[in-house]
């Protein structure tokens, strides 16, 4: 059962960041398992179980990241991550271009939200085509997000702004990829079982947007030139 992370979790992450080598990690592997991996897995499992029960028709799976970096990506001589995350998503061979829910814990902060790791250019072109076709419907969909402070719209903008059909759709229209992110400092909430409730409520709030994004792949490719 998830009962919150602890100060030991934070201490382990900072120590690993400054001692990122096999000798140190092997000597502190029990700390990793007990203070970092186990609570992360418990949180991910319990959030997933609740979300799956609330949205049982979505066919979600969940994944927890590994502490070990892919050997092909160890270019800095540091074989371990100082952060962990879990995701809730539909099964996909192209997970980087599929919308996912996630939670991440790093030494200095924690975050959670919904978005793409890297949306395909054609996916964002399909989003713009939908907005062009029915801007008022999209404004209605995203109105709740403009009226809250939990999640911030994030993602790289096009250097040359595209002309959106309305002012209220402009920020969404000009993203190369999209995420809704809640960024938080390390604090008491992280050390409480109530963290799970906040994440579950946040995912439920974001679900209408997830449902919108997940259907973009079935749209026809737009006429606009995709770059």
Q: Could you describe the 3D structure shown?
A:
The protein is an alpha+beta fold and 227 residues long. The protein is built from 7 helices and 6 strands, in the order αααββββααβαβα. The protein has helices at residues 7-18, 22-27, 29-54, 121-133, 135-146, 170-173, 194-214; strands at 61-64, 84-89, 100-106, 109-115, 152-154, 179-185. It has a 6-stranded antiparallel sheet with strand order 1-2-3-4-6-5, covered by helices on one side. Helix 1 packs across helix 3 (29-54), helix 3 packs across helix 7 (194-214) and helix 4 crosses helix 5. The model has no long low-confidence stretch (mean pLDDT 94).
Low-confidence stretches: none
Number of helices: 7
Into which percent range does the helicity of residues fall?
40-55%
Count of individual beta strands: 6
Mean pLDDT figure? 94
* Major beta-sheet overview: 6 strands, antiparallel
How does the overall form come out from the CA principal axes?
globular
Sheet with most strands: strand arrangement: 1-2-3-4-6-5
N→C terminal distance: 47 Å
Strand content: 5-15%
SSE order: HHHEEEEHHEHEH
The secondary-structure class comes to alpha+beta
Q: What does the radius of gyration come to?
A: 19 Å
In short:
With 227 residues, the chain is an alpha+beta fold. The protein has helices spanning 7-18, 22-27, 29-54, 121-133, 135-146, 170-173, 194-214, and strands spanning 61-64, 84-89, 100-106, 109-115, 152-154, 179-185.
Detail the topology: elements first, then pairings.
Elements: H1 7-18, H2 22-27, H3 29-54, E1 61-64, E2 84-89, E3 100-106, E4 109-115, H4 121-133, H5 135-146, E5 152-154, H6 170-173, E6 179-185, H7 194-214
Antiparallel strand pairs: 1-2, 2-3, 3-4, 4-6, 5-6
């Amino acid at each position: 059962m998830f009962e919150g992370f602890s100060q030991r979790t934070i201490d382990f992450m900072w120590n690993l960041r400054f001692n990122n080598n096999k000798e140190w990690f092997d000597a502190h592997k029990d700390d990793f398992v007990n203070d970092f991996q186990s609570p992360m897995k418990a949180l991910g499992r319990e959030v997933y179980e609740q979300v799956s029960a609330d949205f049982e028709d979505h066919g979600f799976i969940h994944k927890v990241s590994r502490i070990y970096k892919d050997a092909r990506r160890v270019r800095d001589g540091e074989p371990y991550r100082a952060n962990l995350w879990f995701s809730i998503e539909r099964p996909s061979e192209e997970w980087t271009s599929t919308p996912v829910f996630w939670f991440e814990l790093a030494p200095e902060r924690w975050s959670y939200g919904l978005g793409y790791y890297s949306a395909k250019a054609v996916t964002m072109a399909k989003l713009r085509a939908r907005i062009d076709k029915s801007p008022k419907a999209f404004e209605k969909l995203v109105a709740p997000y403009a009226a809250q402070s939990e999640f911030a719209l994030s993602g790289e903008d096009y250097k040359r702004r595209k002309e959106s059909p309305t002012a209220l759709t402009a920020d969404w229209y000009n993203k190369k990829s999209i995420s809704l992110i809640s960024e938080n400092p390390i604090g008491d909430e992280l050390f409480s079982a109530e963290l799970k409730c906040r994440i579950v409520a946040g995912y439920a709030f974001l679900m209408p947007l997830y449902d919108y994004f997940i259907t973009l792949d079935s749209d026809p490719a737009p006429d606009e030139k995709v770059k």
